[in-house]
Amino acid sequence: MSVDFAGAAVGTAFGELFSLVKEVVQTIAVFPEQLKKIESTLDSIVPIMKNIDEFNRRMDRKDMRQIQALINGGKDLVNKCLKVKAHNLCKRYSYSKKLTKFDTALAREFQLSMPLLAVRNTVEILGEVKDFREEFRLFTSRIANDGSLQSGLGPSGNLAVPEAPDFVVGSEVEVSLRELKERLLKEGVSMIVVTAPGGCGKTTLLTKLCHEAEIKVNRCKGLPLALTVIAKSLRGKDPSFWETKLLDWSERRSLLHSDNDVLDCLKKSLDDLDGDPSIKERFMDLSSFPEDRKIPATALIDMWVELYKLDFSGVRAIADLNKLVYRNLADLVVTRDLSEDDEDKCYSSHYAMQHDLLRELAILECNQGEVENRERLILDLTGNNFPDWWSEQKQPTLSARLVSISTDGTFSASWPNLQLPKAEALVLNFGTAIQTKTYALPEFIEKADNLKALIVTNYSFFPAELRNFHVIGSNLRRMRFERVTVPFLSMRKLRLHSLQKISFFMCSISQASASDDAKISEAMPKLVELHIDYCNDLMSLPNDICEIKLMKKLSITNCHNLSALPDQIGQLASLEVVRFNSCTNLLQLPNSIGNLRKLISLNIFDCLSLSTLPNEIGQLVNLKRMNMRGCLRLSELPRSIVKLRNLSKVVCDKEKEDLWRPLRSTLNSLNIVASEEEEANLDWLND
Predict the structure, then answer these.
(1) 678: which DSSP letter?
(2) Tens of pLDDT along 99-153?
(3) Beta strands at 529-533 and 501-505: parallel, antiparallel or unpaired
(4) Collapsing DSSP states into helix, strand and coil, what is residue 430?
(5) What's the whole-number mean pLDDT along residues 542-554?
(6) How many beta carbons lie within 10 A of that of residue 86, not counting itself?
(7) End-to-end alpha-carbon separation of the chain, Å?
(8) Three-state secondary structure along 92-148?
């Protein structure tokens, strides 16, 4: 397979690397597993690189030096591997690790750097759209002056669909047309957004779609089409109406505020929800998070479990989210579809998204009535501008049970006081300026005695230091932190005696407190779940964490520098779920793990450095599920594994299936799920 990339520097380097790896995989047998994994990753990236290269060519872009350097380094590494002899075990091991690290870096680069470039490009595109709006305004003005509004709007001057093209070229157009039609006619679907670079044929495709008979007769279902309502309101009107509408949008006036017909239609859809008021409640709750952002399902679980007294694990919360999805009030994005996540009730790969228009509607619903009496308080602050009702002089007492406050990178003021006696969930969304990179928790949290859930999310590209930890109260049951520096050990000083679940995502947590002899187990004695994900500075866990007797779920995932676990981990006698997946430097499991007699699920997926399992693993008498896929160095099982009489499911690589197959005669209920090595999933880059 040849890859042609228009001659741009990054595309050329990628094409050379791609071709080289393809050739080496077929001719060299020294590093088969690692090279095939890199080949698989590159296969996933090919269509993305083609799109990027075409975009760069159109936009005259030449600023992807970091990616180019990584790809060039990969070429050099593969070339060096060609010189390694099969009998040189030392070099084979060394270069095997280097290839694995390169594959991880390649996938990570596309997962982290590419979104940043996408944001930059989006900002530029928005600027161009603004210029286009101005040109269109001048255009319509000129048309109004000579008394006609015909061009481009159909033969009668209204919003009629242009004539269908006589024919379209290419089978891909027909396939896309058929797919769009199937989606639009699907029960409950009323809106589809089609995006692509200029010149790709969007207009031709959609013109053809609008002339399909099924589309013409199909009614809007569930959520009415805003475009349809606007079209009806403007059809046959004087050009001045069009210009007024254009001015409203160019001045960033809300569509819902400027078009009562759209608002009425959307409200009607929201009010007609099968008589289930909980769906509307959950819908309004989604507005607690910024627009155009993926909302972690785990954050919604933390919020909804406390607000609506749902089951601790979040099964009903996930069911409520799916109800919103079924009614097109939200979208569900699953970044990695693993059945084990659902079985373990972790949902770390599940995200919700809410359309901007629907978020506006949710906020409008939340803002009904006097601010003091609202059930939800949703505040989006720009700079240091607080609403008039909130100041040091007024200090209002509010009835809200859910409070969400979002600030941008220019926010630098001290927090005015706020009385929140009924607040049970507080969501703090913020961005930070490059110069400061700090965020202070509001002092009013200290007096919010009824607060049960705290969710703090930094939406900046850089982690922010979190300050004012002393305000966190002892009644909190759930806390979730994202992209913040929050030294875990410093929490020994806090009195979190009601805390049951704490989560860290992409945080810096390993900075030690230099002070006293206080213990984590004393600070949070009722902790049931600990989740640490993508915290790359974590190298080990504090020993005293093993003294938390009530802990049932320990999930430490994607922490690539974690190399050791406490020897005392067996003291966590209540543990039911243990997850160490993608901790690539974890060397071994402690022998004391055999003391976890209540353990049901063990996940060591992608623990690349794990070469053996302790013999004591046979003492896990209640173990039902085990995932060891991606444990490339694990070549044998301990003999005690035959004692796992309740083991019913093992997930492993295809080549490791032979380790388990002989055990089927002893472990009668054992189901072996053997799969090929999972390809890197980078489809979300096309969003």
Answers:
(1) P
(2) 778 777 777 666 655 555 555 555 555 555 555 555 555 544 554 454 433 333 3
(3) parallel
(4) strand
(5) 94
(6) 9
(7) 26
(8) HHHHHHHHHHHHHHHHHHHHHHHHHHHHHHHHHHHHHHHHHHHHHHHHHHHHHHCCC
Question: How far is residue 334's CA from residue 327's CA, in Å, rounded to a whole number?
Answer: 18
| Position 97, amino acid | K
Q: What is the mean pLDDT of residues 208-219?
A: 57
Closest residue by Cα to residue 407 from 437, 384, 435, 377: 384
Give the CA count within 13 Å in the CB-facing half-sphere of 149: 19
Say which residues have a Cβ less than 8 Å from residue 20's Cβ, sequence separation at least 6.
75, 78, 79
Q: Which of 64-78, 174-188, 310-324 has the weakest average pLDDT?
A: 174-188
Task: Write out the DSSP string of 566-629.
Answer: -GGGGG-TT--EEE-TT-TT-----GGGGG-TT--EEE-TT-TT-----GGGGG-TT--EEE-T
CA dist 312 and 318 (Å) reads 12
Tokens in use for 667?
């472990």
Strand ordering across the sheet containing 295-296? 295-296, 350-353, 331-334
Between these two residues, 168 and 541, which has the higher pLDDT value?
A: 541
What b/e readout covers 560-579, taking b as 16+ CB neighbours within 10 angstroms? bebbebbebbbbbeebbbbb
Phi and psi torsions of 297, nearest 5°: -60, -30
Between CA 280 and CA 288, with CA 284 as vertex, the angle to 5 degrees is 155
Structure tokens at 200: 């790709």
How far is CA 480 from each of CA 4, 531, 617, 667, 681, rounded to the nearest angstrom? Answer: 45, 9, 32, 40, 26
Report whether 186 contacts 180 (CB < 8 A).
no
pLDDT(58) > 80: no
Name the token pair of 242: 């069009």
Give CA–CA dist 252/263, Å, rounded: 16
Q: Tell which residue, 418, 422, 370, has the closest CA to residue 394.
A: 418
Question: Token digits for 248?
Answer: 């409203």
Distance CA(424)–CA(401), nearest Å, equals 5
Residue 390: closest CA among 440, 442, 343: 442
Q: What average pLDDT does range 609-615 have in this prediction? A: 94
Write the pLDDT tens digit of every residue in 344-362.
888 888 999 988 888 888 9
Distance CA 231, CA 261 (A): 11
- The reported pLDDT for the residue numbered 590 is 96
Is the pLDDT score of 316 beyond 80? yes
Q: How far apart are CA 617 and CA 472, in angstroms?
A: 39
For the chain, give the mean pLDDT. 77
Say what the pLDDT of residue 580 is. Answer: 96
Give the pLDDT band of residue 4 (cuts 50, 70, 90): very low
Structure-model confidence comparison of residues 499 and 121, the more confident one: 499
- 625: which strand partners? 601, 649
Residue 28's pLDDT band, with cuts at 50, 70 and 90, is low
What are phi and psi for residue 51, nearest 5 degrees? -65, -40
Tell me: pLDDT of 588 over 50. Answer: yes
Tokens for 136, please give them.
């269109």
CA distance 498 to 527: 8
491 and 524 in contact (C-beta within 8 Å)?
yes
The answer to whether 317 and 346 are in contact (CB under 8 A) is no
Report pLDDT digits (tens) over 364-417.
889 999 999 999 999 999 888 899 888 766 777 899 999 999 998 888 878 988
From 151, 154, 158, 121, select the one nearest 136 (Cα to Cα).
151
* Closest C-alpha to 566, from 584, 548, 552, 550: 548
Vertex 132, ends 129 and 134: CA angle to 5°? Answer: 115
| Mean pLDDT along residues 480-509 | 88
